[in-house]
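Structure first, sequence second, as always.
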């Protein structure tokens, strides 16, 4: 558990100046903590590397953190999982989204768990506290894209997939 607390502290420091896109501009750290909570408490996932990677999943993508830094502090397995779920920000957004769908089936089972928890968290957040500047249409588009990503993750954890399906059922109406 000490490693999990170290990961929370590391992620909190790295994301300290970031906010979510909701109207309240919630602290960003709430998001990775939610992923770990979904995995541990709704999915009964006990794999420490998966829980640590969930806490750190956006550090390479959204902060100045490097893969090497994660490997040195949290081990090669955590660094590999985080790298597997990290988008290449040098690519256009549409291409990054396309690649998430295309690569979902090829990532490791550990990375699939993190990606599945990420989509569950995002759908719940959009349904409850949508980004301030997102129309209902854009919210629906995100739900449908997340559904396409999760299609490639199916089979990794049926209980969490059911949690995703329940979150997807809250898709905003047309």
């Amino acid at each position: 558990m000490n490693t999990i607390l170290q990961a929370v502290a590391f992620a909190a420091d790295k994301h300290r100046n970031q906010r979510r896109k909701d109207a309240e501009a919630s602290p960003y750290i709430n998001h990775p903590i939610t992923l770990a909570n979904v995995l541990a408490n709704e999915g009964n996932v006990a794999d420490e590397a998966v829980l640590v990677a969930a806490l750190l999943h956006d550090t390479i993508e959204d902060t100045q953190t490097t893969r090497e830094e994660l490997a040195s502090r949290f081990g090669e397995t955590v660094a590999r999982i985080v790298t597997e779920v990290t988008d290449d920000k040098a690519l256009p957004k549409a291409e990054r989204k396309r690649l998430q769908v295309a690569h979902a089936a090829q990532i490791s089972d550990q990375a699939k768990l993190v990606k599945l928890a990420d989509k569950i968290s995002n759908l719940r957040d959009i349904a409850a506290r949508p980004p301030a500047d997102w129309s209902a249409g854009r919210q629906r588009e995100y739900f449908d894209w997340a559904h396409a990503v999760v299609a490639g993750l199916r089979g990794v954890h049926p209980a969490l997939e059911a949690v995703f399906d329940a979150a997807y059922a809250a898709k905003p109406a047309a």
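Margin note: The first helix runs from residue 2 to 14.
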